[in-house]
Amino acid sequence: MQVEQLKNVVVEQLEDLKAKDISVLDVRELSSVTDYMVVASGTSNRHVKSVAHNLVSEMKDQGVMPLGVEGDDVSEWVLVDLGDVVVHIMLAQTRDFYQLEKLWDPNWKEARSN
């Protein structure tokens, strides 16, 4: 699966699973580890875990094997590593605390103030 297609499938799945505030960050010029980071919020620990589990299941069904899944034991922040796309599914308060968009998007402050 091509990178753009993978990114689009991930976003579609997150939308279908009712993830909130989905953000796609193009980090190709900032990192050699991945091309895109997708950040989304869940409404509860159970929702975060469910979104991550179902995303992994759907990716496997489409022939994309995750390189790793971290954080599903506590489910405040679950990372799903799909290689070219890394997905962060977080509780809203965890997302507010770590502010990944601010860290990885140099235009974050400008975009939020407009």
From TrEMBL:
Query: Cellular component GO terms, alphabetically?
Result: cytoplasm
| Record keywords, A-Z | Cytoplasm, Repressor, Translation regulation
Q: Key word Repressor present in the record?
A: yes
Source superkingdom: Bacteria
Compartments annotated for it: namely: Cytoplasm
Q: Which InterPro entries match?
A: Iojap/RsfS/C7orf30, NT_sf
Q: What is its main location?
A: cytoplasm
Q: Give TM regions.
A: none
User: Alphabetically, which GO biological process terms does the record hold?
Assistant: cytosolic ribosome assembly; negative regulation of ribosome biogenesis; negative regulation of translation
Q: Name one GO molecular function term.
A: ribosomal large subunit binding
What does this gene product do? Answer: Functions as a ribosomal silencing factor. Interacts with ribosomal protein uL14 (rplN), blocking formation of intersubunit bridge B8. Prevents association of the 30S and 50S ribosomal subunits and the formation of functional ribosomes, thus repressing translation.
How does this protein assemble? Answer: Interacts with ribosomal protein uL14 (rplN).
The record ties this protein, via HAMAP family, to: Iojap_RsfS (MF_01477)
**PANTHER family under this entry?**
IOJAP SUPERFAMILY ORTHOLOG (PTHR21043), MITOCHONDRIAL ASSEMBLY OF RIBOSOMAL LARGE SUBUNIT PROTEIN 1 (PTHR21043:SF0)
Family according to the record: Belongs to the Iojap/RsfS family.
What is the protein name for this chain?
A: Ribosomal silencing factor RsfS
- Organism from which the protein derives: Kangiella spongicola
Give the gene symbol.
rsfS
